[in-house]
Amino acid sequence: MAPRRTRPTSPAPRLRTALLAALSALVTVLALAIGLPGPAQAAGSLPCDVYASTGTPCVAAHSLTRALYSSYDGPLYQVKRASDGATTDVGPLATGGYANAAAQDSFCSGTTCVITKIYDQSPRHNDLTVEGAGGAGAADVGAPADALPVTAGGHQVYGLEISAGMGYRDDSTSGVATNGAAEGMYMVTSGTHVNGRCCFDYGNAETNNKDTGNGHMDAINFGTECWFSPCYGKGPWVQADLENGLFESDSGYSKNSSDTGTGAMPFVTALLKNNGQDHFALKYGNAQSGGLTTTYSGGEPTVNGGGYSPMHQEGAIVLGTGGDNSNGSIGSFFEGVMTAGIPTDAADNAVQSDIVSVGYGASTGATGSLTPGSEISLRATTSCCTSDYVRHQNNAAVISPISSSSSSLDKNDATWIVRKGLADASCVSFESRNYPGDYLRHYNFHVYRQPMDGTAQFRADATFCPTAGKSGTGTSFASYNYPSKYLRHYDYNLYVAGDGGSNAWDSTSSWADDVSWAVSGPWAP
């Protein structure tokens, strides 16, 4: 295991950090007030510096992507490899910086890894480990370490991609709110990897992994589950899991008809504040641009027989499941913190400005090749379809015309990031540009865009091995687990197809042309 480095615990450095943070936070807030962009990531401006400077210090700070204190140089997360069970810690490239994903890649080369621990960067040491069994779910498993590659701060890093049956927890914490104490929390998540099952949460939960009653949780929930009707739009929504309900207001249901959810926003800031007595608030924002929107600010819930005013938090921390380990949900997590006390709105705005400065999901900077990390589009070469590109549409992979006049959505849907093959590093996999963690994969020979779940089957189905184009031009892509079948368009849909066979898409007519693709620069900027 790599040596564990330092956390911000020394009083003198913390005082200097707080003074710098106060100045930086003031600059950021003034910039926001007069419409100027906030400062780039710099000493004293990271989320936990900002919150400390306003008297609401972080009591939990979890991130796979970066440090959340400008002075932090400790481990971010731990991975365990399948080949020998060894573990290693992944830390930042520099103090206060972004994750050293190359260290993970090197350690996990030739095998697979899962995330076994997410370190708390705060002096409280509230580290999250894989969650055990609870009242509503069996013990969870760790998330695949390579499922969610993403650009942050100009670096390739990894987020946490939760599939059903995965979750993390700490039932014995320090400093987390209990019994009606005030707290705030945020997480950066994704609106493209959600479902309507219980419960993709981050925040305060029971210490025994069971439902112990109303008000015993205080956690952010993000998904499409509508617990109290009406919910407006299709979601996903930022809600408060206060136990025995996902709340959008004191009445449970949404009182805000304009809150139709974030939609398929790739990166979302989700925020909850609760004074533990008579008031809670919900906010969200685009983690790539802009500020925060408040969807509710008012009294504690009065439904379900009460019990939410005051709250009865127990102080455990949960990530990816409900308080009783209800673990049917899916979700993405990049960073999140919990505070002692309720942060000011100005501090929240400063933190949102910092999150935006990270540049989550920005271009990788490489284009037009099959080198991992390059962004590309794939154009058909068959004479009928030379203006058509591979894109996803309603989760299916198809080809359709894309041009300079196409919509931004169409261009994004037709842009892919080349990744090392999930099943074989000498081959490639194609990650969606605007659905982080989703890949092209075949299922029953049809090709879809689906989230990576870490299974060996998915890894094989989402891996393609480039060869010279079968028509004599371009590149053909053999299926890793069906090497005689190649990525083919047929009747505008995408398949893995052989040159002859019982299925219509195996037709020999124009097969060589249909499986030959031109690798071009990406349509998305």
Structure overview:
Residues 1-42 form the signal peptide. The chain is an alpha+beta fold and 525 residues long. The chain has two domains: 11-358, Jelly Rolls, CATH 2.60.120.200; 375-520, Trefoil (Acidic Fibroblast Growth Factor, subunit A) (Trefoil). The chain contains seven helices and 32 strands. The strands form nine sheets. The chain has a ten-stranded antiparallel β-sheet with strand order 3-2-4-5-9-18-11-12-13-14, with helices on one face. Helix 1 packs across helix 4 (345-358). Mean pLDDT is 93; it is low at 1-43.
Layout: helices, strands, pairs:
Elements: H1 11-33, H2 47-53, E1 58-63, E2 77-81, E3 87-90, H3 101-107, E4 113-118, E5 128-130, E6 149-152, E7 155-158, E8 160-162, E9 168-170, E10 183-189, E11 201-205, E12 218-223, E13 237-241, E14 246-247, E15 268-274, E16 280-286, E17 292-298, E18 316-319, E19 331-333, E20 335-340, H4 345-358, E21 375-380, E22 388-393, E23 396-401, H5 408-413, E24 416-420, E25 428-432, E26 438-443, E27 446-451, H6 456-461, E28 464-468, E29 475-479, E30 486-490, E31 493-497, H7 511-514, E32 517-520
Antiparallel strand pairs: 1-20, 2-3, 2-4, 4-5, 5-9, 6-7, 8-19, 9-18, 10-15, 10-20, 11-12, 11-18, 12-13, 13-14, 15-16, 16-17, 21-24, 21-32, 22-23, 24-25, 26-27, 28-29, 30-31
